[in-house]
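Hi V.,

You were right to ask for the full record rather than a summary. Here it is.
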Amino acid sequence: MKRLVCMLLCLAAFGMAEAQRLTSPDGGLSLDFHLSPDGVPVYSLRYKGKTVIGESRMGFRIAPDYEFDRGFEQTDVRFSETDSVWQPVWGQYRDIRDRHKEMCVALCQPSTGWLLNIRFRLFDDGLGFRYEFPVQKDLRNFTLKEEMTEFRLTGDHKAFWLPGDYDTNEYPTTTSRLSEVASLIDSVRTEPLAVRSFTPNLAVQTPLMLKSSDGLYINVHEAALVDYPAMQLNLDDKAFCLSAHLTPDKNGAKGFMQTGSVTPWRTVIVSDDARDILASNVILNLNEPCKLEDTSWIHPVKYVGVWWEYFTGQGSTWAYTANQDIKIGETDYSKEIPNGTHGANTAHVKEYIDFAAKHGFDAVLVEGWNEGWEANFAYVKERIYSFTKPYPDFDVEELHRYAAERGVKIIMHHETTSSVSDYERQMEDAFRFMADHGYDAVKTGYVGPIIPRSEHHDGQWMVNHYLRVVKTAARYKVMVNSHEAVRPTGLCRTYPNWIAQESARGTEFESFKGNRPDHTTILPFTRLMGGPMDYTPGIFEGDLSVYGSNKARLSTTLAKQLALYVTMHSPLQMAADLYTNYEKYPDAFQFIKDVATDWDDTYILEAEPGDYVTIARKAKGKNEWYVGGITDENAREAEIDLSFLPEGKRFQATIYADGKKADWRTAPKDYVISSRKVDGKTVLKQRLAPGGGVAVSIKEL
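Predicted structure:
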């Protein structure tokens, strides 16, 4: 009967079987869809007459061995269009326009009677498409063996890539041709990371940034990752074809699905101008509107913290003391940490609270406050930390009182070391403890292999866990900053208390000699496409050897550290250095104190992935603008066109620039500060040193 119904639908829709075309509102992008002779769904994408994605197949393989990627008939097609404006709770823009055209194609597989819809949305700057599984009588629960989606490229594009990995995205970005990935990937995988679970295929991670030889910039990612595994991309480096590779659990299952559900959107953002990639809101627009009724408690945060001292080799530790004998096989994990080096002690935290209050910071992050750091690896035992029991030298009540009197919040830290099942058992108590003691933000951490042991960081179960944390936190009016989590896909629109994530190499890797000067010129085109990053900039003392044994040197100048507050968008911004270093350079520190964390508008002035980025932003509700310009290891001249300023008014610009001798290798702290009057006709030309940058604050006279 089910096959008969499907066949009748197909016959009724016989006239719809021809190829379908969808164009973007401005006509620059066009998408074609058809079924191949054997019923395989096929799409292609063109931009201004140039092929972006050649004919690429779609569909699924369903366990144990059903081919749900062929034998389809088209039963319906519907078109619609939208042009609306919405306001985010926080972000790079006060108003975001959602203008797109949509095509929804209904398919039926006569051999099984199963139904599948594919929904395409075409914006002026990109494409989003997803699969939808209608509620149907003969297909209810099923397990995905693989998603067959392809992105068939037109040539050997320049790529900015991370190796495929189910558990971490904390690799340096490699820049190469697609044909060179196979020869380079093994050397990249030797990076010393705590968790590495490589894909068995030649694969790369998303967001993947590409540049074609004919000048197209192409970004491939996904939006609205909910109840589904994160997507890696298999690479056929001969045919230059990318295909979906879903993160499995350790039993090989890619996803457990029900009809009535949808997949994340697959996104392709494209332009012949790199600036348009950074200006795109396609991923945010593909996410659902905010689901929180009350967002009045959600706010941007500028903070300092007991954090960087753990990386600088000064002897400060997360753990209070350790006298445990921990041995696994032949490996002895015993630690001897003397009392007196514990960083999260009441007196020391008060010093940071005083500093924050004096300089107008909102909050102080404190890591290492809670019991459990003596054996902080989840593969030793499942129950490690308490999220309600402080160490003896951390007085929760006194610090809450002390901070509140000074108008400062303390940011909670929940490091789970990936003992996720234990964290979920404690989660309600943990957030209730936060609410009772005045905390409104938490930094979560997932270092190490996941417990339960059948799961990966980027698998479906963990994707659901991260969202469970965010939803639970929202009930207690807590904002979440997740580290070591799956990379973001725009869900901060739907749940704006998910205020930031790490999900890439942040500043901490500078202390491991792990970031290159081009790193932050690439991240806006890759990691930041899905949402803001807690990058933790603002390190003024770039030579860590001054602290002792650590011989690392930052890959930036001091001026570039300032510029990152503008180029690395986040409503959660840390002044990450030791507060004593800011006291040594109060003139440069002034920019960090002034720069906004929420914006009315953003202007991408210059951009080339891997080379340079210059961005200007208008502060939310103020006649103030801030500019950040950064470069890679090469010196260059940034051209800062101030035509975004209102006509007929004059402004004072304070310019924080690299000095004449500045160089990230030899003179990172050589900077100069100058002021001049400017208006909308002014074009500033500013030299950037190797690994350097420029930061500008502009205020109305």
